Each structure stands twice: as structure tokens, then as C-alpha cells.
């Protein structure tokens, strides 16, 4: 069998191969078997991640779907003639990690509001190919009024900006907190503006009479290089002014 070319995605793998130069007869079919060897996500259930595919002699490619992100698969490819199967060719291919899956946020009211704080519910994400390594709360000052729904999916905030750096850079957003996954095993309330520091990020008190949007994102890392985010808009509100 000639060389195998592959293209991994998050939940699928494309495989292409060339027919062998020498065959013991006319090729009648190809057989491909695969099974999951392991995942970067220790919570992944890989018991059903195996299968077998048969291809016609003129079909030298296949798209495997329904795979699990961040998982290494072992493939065995064999060609068959009327005299039986030839020697197998094997390869290992890993799918890419996927962004954590975040639960939906309805348009429920905040749990509590003061002049300088707002308390919201944070919900844990579901890992998809790599464990969730951190949660991040992002506050953005809405300098122009925008209408968004609580279920809007937005681009991630990939570069962390502290409150102080946001002031220097005139950035409309800043990271108010970075939370470890163990602190969000279940749904938990969190107060934005509580004047505490979370993993180096100051959760600064909010400014009265300004309009803010609150974002929540989950971060996954694999081998220290691959990063995926999922971002959901939680609330938009105007902090009540004194008096």
C-alpha cells in the first residue's frame, strides 16, 4: 500500500491513500478498521469509538465522522483481491481539540445589583477533547449602545487585559477574574466588582452610570499549545447611579 495522507479535524478525519504498486490479483475492496487509543480529555468515554469501513477499489479516500475531539485513533488499511487480503498499513491520527461546550444563558435577571457590583450565575462548561483549564470573566464597557441577546455567541477575548492595562490602553474590556475549574464544578454565583483579585486579575468595582456587558469564557489547552475558547454574553446592564 502506498502512502496515506490524512486531514484531522475536531470530530472527523479525512483519509486518502494510493493503491499498491504490486498486487496479487485485481483489488476487489479496501478494508479500514479504526479504534480510539486515548484522549487528552480523561472524562471521554471511548468505548464506542471504533469501527470498520469497506471501500470499492476505485474509492481511495474516506471521511470518518462522529469522532471525539482531542483523541488519537489507530487505523489499519488493507487491500483485498480474490486471493485474500494483503499486508496491512497502519497509522495513528489525532483529532483536534474543540472549544468547550457552554450551557445556554437565558435572559434571567441578575441575582443582585448594587452601585458598584452585579452578581450573576456562572455555569460550568463541558470539555470537548481537552479538560477545561480555566474560566475567565470579562467586563466590557459599552461606549455605544448595542442590543444583544443573552445567547449570542461572540468572538473570544484571546489576549488577557487587566483592569489597569485596559485603562492605559483605553481598551473597552478587561479581565475581571480567572477561575480554576475546581471552583466551578457546579453552578455558582459570582459578583463582578467585588474588589478582589482572582489569579492576578483585579475585579474592580464598577463605575456608576456606565453601561457594561459581562462575558464568560472557558479555556482548554492541549500540550501547552492548542487553545480553544467558547464565549457567551451573559448580561448587559446599567449600574444604578447614586442619588
From TrEMBL:
InterPro entries: FN3_dom (IPR003961), Fn3_PTPRU (IPR057598), FN3_sf (IPR036116), Ig-like_fold (IPR013783), R-tyr_protein_phosphatases (IPR051622)
Subcellular location: Membrane
SUPFAM superfamilies according to UniProt: Fibronectin type III
Assigned keywords, A-Z: Disulfide bond, Glycoprotein, Membrane, Repeat, Signal, Transmembrane, Transmembrane helix
Signal peptide (from-to): none
Membrane topology, as annotated: Single-pass type I membrane protein
Keyword Disulfide bond applies: yes
Keyword Manganese among UniProt keywords: no
Domain of life of the organism encoding this protein: Eukaryota
Database matches in Pfam families: fn3, Fn3_PTPRU
Transmembrane region(s): none
Cited Gene3D superfamilies: Immunoglobulins
GO cellular component: membrane
Domain spans labelled Fibronectin type-III: 1-101
Protein name: Receptor-type tyrosine-protein phosphatase T-like
Organism: Carassius auratus (Goldfish)
Gene this protein is translated from: LOC113093518
